[in-house]
Amino acid sequence: xxxxxxxxxxxxxxxxxxxxxxxxxxxxxxxxxxxxxxxxxxxxxxxxxxxxxxxxxxxxxxxxxxxxxxxxxxxxxxxxxxxxxxxxxxxxxxxxxxxxxxxxxxxxxxxxxxxxxxxxxxxxxxxxxxxxxxxxxxxxxxxxxxxxxxxxxxxxxxxxxxxxxxxxxxxxxxxxxxxxxxxxxxxxxxxxxxxxxxxxxxxxxxxxxxxxxxxxxxxxxxxxxxxxxxxx
Length: 232
Hints:
Helix content: 40-55%
Number of strands: 4
CATH topology: Glutaredoxin
CATH class: Alpha Beta
Structural class: alpha+beta
Strand content: 5-15%
Largest sheet: 4 strands, mixed
Radius of gyration: 21 Å
Number of helices: 10
C-alpha cells in the first residue's frame, strides 16, 4: 500500500493530521506493508522570506480580519494541537516562505530522512518559532536529523531540487488537491483533511480489504488444486 501525503510545513492541520495518521497507522495490522511518501505543497507561495510582523498581524492582514478574531482562531487550533500532544506557539511563529525548506526535504529523501526531517521542520515552525526561509536555520535543522551540513548549504545556495518541488505542487493541482493535508492511497483513494485517528484506521482497513479480496475456500481449491492427486 502506497500513501502519498501532500502537506506544507506551515500548515497547522498538516502537522495535526500527520500525528493522527501516524497513530492510526501504528494500529494498522498491515503497517509493515505501507510506504509513506511526502509531497510538497505551499499554502502561501507568495509569503516573504523575512518578516518583522508577528503571526497575528500577518494572518489578520492576509485574511482581512481583526487581531481579536485571529487570536480566537489560533486558540482553537492550539487546542486541537494539544489533543495530539503538540505545542503550537503562535506568539513565536514566523509566517515566512517554505519553498526552500521543501527543497531541502526533497534532498533529505535521497537518504530516507524526509519523514524525520518533515517532523523536525514542523516542530521548528510551530513550536520553536524558527524562520524556515533562513538558510542558516535550515542547515542547522538538517544537521540535527543527521544530514551533512555542508551539502545542505550547497543544496540551498544552488537552488537544487526546485523543479522537484514545483512538480509535486503541480501534480497536486492536476489530481484536484484544493487543500492540505491530502492523502492519496494507491493512486485510487483520496482522504482530505486532518481526520480523526478512527477515521484514518477505518479507511486503511477498508482500502486494504478492497484491494486484497479474500478468496473463498471453494474457489481456492478449484483455482489452485489440479491433477489426479488433488484432495477435493
